[in-house]
Write a structure and sequence with these properties.
Blueprint lengths: L11 H4 L2 H4 L4 H22 L4 H13 L8 H7 L3 H12 L2 H4 L8 H37 L4 E6 L2 E7 H26 L18 H12 L13 H27 L7 E2 L16 H20 L11 H31 L1 E2 L1 H8 L8 H8 L5 H16 L5 H8 L5 H4 L9 H15 L1
Helix pairs in contact: 3-4, 3-8, 3-10, 8-9, 8-13, 8-19, 9-11, 9-19, 11-12, 11-13, 12-13, 15-16
Amino acid sequence: MAATLFDSTIYRDLILDREFGALFTDSAEVRAMMIVEGALAKAQGTVGVIPEIAAKAIHRASLELQIDPAGLSPETGKNAVVVPALVSSFRTLMQAPEYAQYVHFGATSQDIMDTALALRLRQMLTLTETRLKRVVAGLAALAEEHAETPMAGRTYGQVATPTSFGAMAASWGNPLADLLEQLPAIRSQVLRVSLAGAAGTLSAMGDKGDEVRAELAKGLGLSDPEHSWHAERNGFAAMAAWMTQVITQLAKMGDDLTLLTQSGIGEVRLPAAGGSSTMPQKQNPVMPSMLSALARVAVGLNATLQYAPVHRQQRDGAAWISEWMTLPQLCLATGRALQIGGDLAEGLKPDTESMLGHIDDGTGLIYAEALSFELAKSMPRPDAQAAVKDMCKRVIAGEGTLKELAKAEWTDLNADAIFAPSSQLGLAPQDARTFAARAKALA
């Protein structure tokens, strides 16, 4: 088995999303760093830090030259960062030393790598937004269509009171809609240039450093933080926490679906299921299980990334490298979870007959709370609760259904209205439709 399943050729169709995966490869990293080096030279040429003719040559070369990532390995193994090897190869391949001497002028490795990461995170967050909207829209469609489709609500794994499948879809979707609304703030914290030089002072560029940084930000379409953030990693910690919440909220849906599809329940049908190597009858809830598995891994990755702000002094190699080892995997987990979540949201089908069957198993006990509140209209609430609780014990003992015993005890009781799922849904239909309307506004 590969060290990480994201890199496995065996498990890639299970765990890897190809679009997200393409953003976190050696080739993608090298290409992004080349773009940053070219944009930096162009910005420096514009404000007069380096000769404009050299800037144009470097910028053109950054778009044309091809650097093999494997060739950067030996030097990176010594330096811990890839930029020295990249710059060396860049200068050699330019075959114009009079211009190449200005490549990477006044910058430091972290400037290039962090800015290149921001370029890839911009694409990643765009994909994330698109997919998150797809999940929310899919759940909204379910909520609207099944706002009044009754099903048993369960607490502690036990049947409680009736709810609707639409309300359950809304309970999956509302937290995701919250996270969608938070996405602009996450973008603002990570989609920014880094240009601060060796120790955060940008002294090598004299009095034009801030102009270069602003021009670089403009050229790359990123924001200008107007200060050094080498050791300020709160943005990545915030993004990691946000992605983890996305995955764990999807896992909540996944765990619920695993329970709803289990033998003896069967209240929903999945768009796809997995088989067993030995049991022909099995229809395993692979997609929901993947959401749960990804969440467990994401929480661990996030724990490491929450330590990222502990970045010693002006720059810290250990803290920085720990980000490289965890952030890409968390991004890939987010992409795969959202893909699965979208497929489930668009492909789920409730089994309404099974849902109705589990609301009332013939005993009517799910209506015990409703009965107690109806009785409380004509007697003290504690007395009503005690009476219904005693009657539930009689039902469990086999003396009859709750409806039968109630009608016999209270002959003027409107039992048909109490013992009907449609009359006991409470705010469930409203909650489902409110979420559906909210989701349309976010589309």
